[in-house]
Amino acid sequence: MNVAVLNSPLTAQDLVTPDFWLAINPDLHVMDLPFINATTPFNIGADLARKARELVVREGYFHLPGPIPWRLSIEAMRNAVGHLKDRGLSPVFAYAYDEFWVIFARLHHLIKAILGDDYMLLPDFWAWHVDPRAGEAGWSPHRDKGQRSLFPDGTPKSLTIWLPLSNANPLNGCMYVLPADRDKTYHTDNEWQWAPHLPDIRALPATAGDVFCWNQAVLHWGARSSPRATEPRVSIAFEFQLAKVEPFNQPLMKALTIPSMDSRISLICKQIVQYKHMYPLSPELEALAMERLSTSS
Q1: Beta bridge partners of residue 163, listed in sequence order
Q2: Euclidean distance between CA atoms 203 and 273, whole angstroms
Q3: What local confidence, expressed as pLDDT, does residue 159 receive?
């Protein structure tokens, strides 16, 4: 099946061809093994690890502000998401590039500090390009997996990490959260009947390259942008879970996994299908994703 991308046909074979993606974003890497193998997670101190664990339980989220030693071009990653959208492709195709896997691998020690040593990557990730000129918004209020993702004592079984690749503020659609300790239906059987006291809602403005972690029961959403915003809100997210609990989704991947080209494209197509209720999707792109999944299963 072909899908028109700026009047050029896109085929299933294009999706697994590194040169196709490099032609769109030549400043990034695709299956560049020396680049991938040079990845080393950055360390965090004991005080930061303790603070992250405490806040993810008490308030439901943790913010690690920059500067962060990414050793990656956040600007090139941000531009890449825009280039994909300009060509009629879903922003989630950003995960065709090595950088979008490497950046989460570099957070290995932070993830371990919150979840524990034995964690897995979930096949749940996304990328957003919220355009103020079009009045776009992030995803509406939701809990990623709800109270089933918490142990009885409130510690998390799973975790979402959200990374802004642009500055994020109330005008271009930054994230908002209802802190867990102010959420009357958090970790209850009535968790889907939220009715927040408006002053308890908290905006999460951020600088490009910051890190946000939240447990998967906390209520959060992306705001609608304003035409007064000076730049789009571009961001990415990935989900993780403890290995010792039942999988929330499959296939799970070991920590620090950087998938092969075939695997990452299959995983991207899985995202397109499983999140079609959250993000606009053309019938042609959905059909191409379904074709890819049917041939790779």
Answers
A1: 236
A2: 30
A3: 98
Enumerate the β-bridge partners of residue 3.
10
How far apart CA 271 and CA 273 sit, in angstroms, is: 5
pLDDT of residue 294: 75
Helix or strand (DSSP H, E) at 63: strand 61-64
Q: How far apart are CA 132 and CA 223, in angstroms?
A: 11
51-87 b/e (C-beta count within 10 Å ≥ 16 → b):
ebbebbbebbbbbbeeebebebebebbbbbbbbbbee
CA distances from residue 277 to 101, 216, 274 in whole angstroms, order as listed: 24, 19, 8
The predicted-structure confidence for 103-149, as pLDDT tens digits, reads as follows 999 999 999 999 999 999 999 999 999 999 999 999 999 999 999 99
Structure tokens belonging to residue 15: 């999706």
Q: Tens digits of per-residue pLDDT, 134-189?
A: 999 999 999 999 999 999 999 999 999 999 999 999 999 999 999 999 999 999 99
Under DSSP, the state recorded for 62 is E
Asked if the bond preceding 67 is cis, omega within 30° of 0, the reply is yes
**What is the gyration radius of the CA atoms in the chain, in angstroms?**
19
